[in-house]
Amino acid sequence: AQSVSQHNHHVILSEAASLELGCNYSYGGTVNLFWYVQYPGQHLQLLLKYFSGDPLVKGIKGFEAEFIKSKFSFNLRKPSVQWSDTAEYFCAVNGGAAGNKLTFGGGTRVLVKP
Amino acid sequence: GAGVSQSPSNKVTEKGKDVELRCDPISGHTALYWYRQSLGQGLEFLIYFQGNSAPDKSGLPSDRFSAERTGGSVSTLTIQRTQQEDSAVYLCASSLARFRTSSSYEQYFGPGTRLTVT
């Protein structure tokens, strides 16, 4: 079965700081990888995704993620965060024997101080 | 266009009662998913419908949980004899899942139904 782990449960940083959130998954076959964001009081939104091709993917709002197959990782990065990036971030995976259903990591709450 | 909608947005029920949660997917989306978001368990998959295929029920936590999808569109998640541990936000998502393109499999989430069992 697939599993996803996110290393940090809570991250607090100041505006303009750089952000990196770790994500590792367990499944060794072909997978699709996603980062979702949930802003306070809002529903889950897709930030970016990786299906194939260039392992460095760019998403909305200046976020990017790098797929490193050898490390089973898909870390999320943003060079300079804003207060509006305060949210909870979820890494997710699907594909292979699990089909289209998503397996989520535990989430990381990010608080950006103005 | 309209996104995924869910109703009710909030539901408070007494332990032992049955509840029904509704999901309206994006028009034309053939795949529909139910997930649950709770403090103790995070985001977990419940059930998945794809077109006319038999649903994948592998995530349902007990036989008190069931779901149906009528006419390939609206879905209802039913929880019988609710327990306090059923308290959670129930999320519905849909995807086009019709063409072999990556965007076709992106899942779009609704706002969720917050269920509180007292």
Q: Unreliable runs of chain B, pLDDT <50, ≥5 residues?
A: none
Cα end-to-end separation of chain A: 41 Å
Helix-strand pattern of chain A: EEEEEEEEEEEE
Number of helices of chain A: 0
Characterize the largest beta sheet of chain A: strand count, sense, and whether it forms a barrel: 6 strands, mixed
Q: Helix proportion of residues of chain A, in percent?
A: under 10%
For the record, what CATH class of chain A applies? Answer: Mainly Beta
**Quick one: overall form of chain B?**
elongated
Which structural category do the helix and sheet elements of chain B fall into?
mainly beta
Q: Encode the helix/strand succession of chain B as letters.
A: EEEEEEEEEE
- CATH names the topology of chain A as Immunoglobulin-like
The helix content of chain B is under 10%
- What is the beta-strand fraction of chain B? over 45%
CATH superfamily of chain A: Immunoglobulins
Shape of chain A: globular
Count of DSSP strands of chain B:
10
Enumerate the spans of chain A where pLDDT stays under 50 for 5 or more consecutive residues: none
CATH architecture annotation name of chain A: Sandwich
List the defining traits of the structure above.
heterodimer; A: 114 residues; mainly beta; Immunoglobulin-like; 6-stranded mixed sheet; 4-stranded antiparallel sheet; 50% strand; B: 118 residues; 10 strands; 0% helix; elongated
Description:
The complex is a heterodimer of chains A (114) and B (118). Chain A is mainly beta and 114 residues long. Chain A has one domain (4-113): Sandwich (Immunoglobulin-like), CATH 2.60.40. Chain A contains no helices and twelve strands. In chain A, the strands form three sheets. In chain A, strands 2, 5, 6, 10, 11 and 12 form a six-stranded mixed sheet that branches. In chain A, strand 5 and strand 6 form a beta hairpin. The termini of chain A are far apart. Chain B has 118 residues and is mostly beta strands. In chain B, 0% of the residues lie in helices and 47% in strands. Chain B contains no helices and ten strands. In chain B, strands 2, 4, 5, 8, 9 and 10 form a six-stranded mixed sheet that branches. Chain B starts with a strand and ends with a strand. The model of chain B has no long low-confidence stretch (mean pLDDT 92). Chain A binds chain B through residues 32, 36, 42-46, 49, 51-52, 90, 92, 94, 99-107, and chain B through 31, 33, 35, 42-45, 48, 50, 56, 59, 91, 93, 95, 97, 102, 105-112.
